UniProtKB/TrEMBL annotation:
UniProt key word Cell membrane: no
Organism: Nonomuraea solani
InterPro entries: DUF7134 (IPR055558), HATPase_C_sf (IPR036890), HATPase_dom (IPR003594), Sensor_HK_TwoCompSys (IPR050482), Sig_transdc_His_kin_sub3_dim/P (IPR011712)
SUPFAM superfamilies: ATPase domain of HSP90 chaperone/DNA topoisomerase II/histidine kinase (SSF55874)
A single GO molecular function term of this UniProt record: phosphorelay sensor kinase activity
Official protein name in the record: histidine kinase
Amino acid sequence: MLNGAPPAIQRLSKINATIADTALALFLIVTSWLWALAEPDQGRLPADPPSLALILLVNAPLAARRRVPYLVLVVSVSGAVVYHLLGYHRGLNSMGPLLALYTVAAHRPLRAAFACSVPVIAEWTHASSLAPGVAVWSALGQALVVAGCAVSIGASVRLLDTRTRQLAELADRLHQEQEAAAHRAVTLERMQIARELHDVVAHHMSVISVQAGLGRYVAFSEPETARQTLDVIARTSSAALTEMRRLLSILRVEPAGEDEELYTTTPGLERLPALVERMRLAGLSIDMTVEGTARPLPPGLDLCAFRIVQEALTNVLKHAGDDARVRIVVTYDPDDLALRITDDGHGTPAAAPGGHGLLGMAERVRLYHGTITAGPLPQGGYEVAASFPL
């Protein structure tokens, strides 16, 4: 029932269960011995050291009933049978086998409990039939009722424990799905903000470009107009910077602290697992493989490799379709580093005239004397492959 609890609580629960079982075993031993001394059974052997040893044999194993229920039941039933066959008290030592049977029903499959109930019924029937005037069939009926109650209660407890555990797992799964949905919503919102950032900055830069051209044209002929254009450029550039800072501050906010390092430090290939996890939360199915022995790279090259994978995954998210599967292979060879990002989606369309994603990747790669190819695959999908000399 505590499968979803922290390890410390689970250990404490096990310790408490062991203490409770030990106390139960001691209670049965003490009460059985005192009963045997206080109320001797007429016509049966009195309490003596051998009977005390058998009382211990029947009840002491109950301290381990949750860990080894089958062994506890065998030892307890065997001790009770010997106790009664030797002629000791008829009313003692039947509770131990009954508790052992309940434990089997509570912690093991029901068919095992039915099988284990046979020796318990036989022992209880034998002990009850020793009383004067009690017929075997009457003793058997009583044993069936008692054993049936033990099995029924144990099975009910087991069913309740199973359902409680299933509910806990369902609640945990629901919580994880809610967190994943929240992460996906945040990621999609960030993509929207990135698009807004592009539109805002593009608008302001267009205004600045137009005003700069006008100012250069009238700089000498109309100084007042030139000053006005400079004022417009100053206000527009300030507004653009303000908008950019505001939007980037939103993009850098993480609802959970585990991904903050991806933004607060210069990323490299060691950050790929965090990037892959974020893209998975956004809906992509990604498989990443690292071949060779990973080793430290120059910071600029490390950042360049990371940005290539990031840009490729962003393109897949935008263009390849929701059902696309992505495979990332990072290969560390003695003399070079290779990156390969493939997907089986609809394929990334050719870059628009104003697009800079693939061009930006090519520029980064050339800066480090590497090579890059990007294009659709014959069997469908898209591939980005880059290689850098080390």
